[in-house]
Amino acid sequence: MNLQGEIPLDYMIVLSTMLFFVGLMGVLIRRNLITMLMGIELMLNAVNINFVAFNHYLFPHRLEGHFFALIVVAIAAAEAAIAIALIINIYRQFGTVSVDDVDELKY
Amino acid sequence: MTGPKIIFFVLAAAIVVFAILSITSRKILRAAIFLLFVLVAISGLFYMMNFQFLAAVQLILYAGGIVVLIVFSILLTSQINSKLDPPKLNHLLSGAVTAIGGIVLSSITILQFTFKPTHTAAIGTDMRTIGRQLMDTDVHGYALPFEVISVLLLAALVGSIFIAQKNRT
Predict the structure, then answer these.
(1) What are phi and psi of B114, to 5 degrees?
(2) Which CATH code of 3.40.50.720, 2.40.50.140, 1.10.287.3510, 1.20.1270.90 fits the domain covering A9-94?
(3) Nearest CA to A7 among B73, B49, B98, B160?
(4) pTM for the structure as a whole
(5) CA-based nearest residue in chain B for residue A3
(6) CB–CB contact B164 A69 (8 Å)
(7) Residue B55 pLDDT
(8) For B50, which residue in chain A has the nearest alpha carbon?
């Protein structure tokens, strides 16, 4: 369906702003590496909403935002895989995934 | 209130509420499930904006892939019944001030700006158009990013196997 007359673009962008800052707050207040990763995923998704909304509302004759969002999703998948490999390695080394306890570079 | 508006507000409320629950829940597995709800609601938004392929990718890759990966790593690294420590007061305070200040400032800026609506006809977002453009080398083609992303995914695969390897010399 075409949302042009139904929902203003501002609503979408305010929604994605809220999601982005909630994700940022998650990264700031959490001390566990996995939950910080979840905050980063929330921020990436907020950016995706922005790309798709601008594509749908302002440039409907092209698909640029759509492909950007696709690429962001692929990079998020790669990033999550690397991050989880690192987290598992850190857990093996230190026995914890809390950023307060992981404070040595050399072991 | 029309139909799409109601659906949009339900989805938006679900996204914001579950996102806040996901960053404040003290049981880590519940936080992952709330993240899953956020991702499914976002895929609903993509459906509303006519991007069916992207919505399906969002469901498969995020809800089916990344959340499962996160749940796996939770099960590998923490006890299932243990609660996370509550955040320290100064962390909570600074985080909340940053988030609320950012939301207010950005929202004021966004609402002051008027976006010019466009009247150009929309391109179809069916699979044929998407596939043609993804593999095209013309002006609107995305063959190069597509190939670059495949190399990146291969590098991430090899890298994560190497990092998580047990006995490396």
Answers:
(1) -100, 120
(2) 1.10.287.3510
(3) B49
(4) 0.90
(5) B49
(6) no
(7) 92
(8) A1
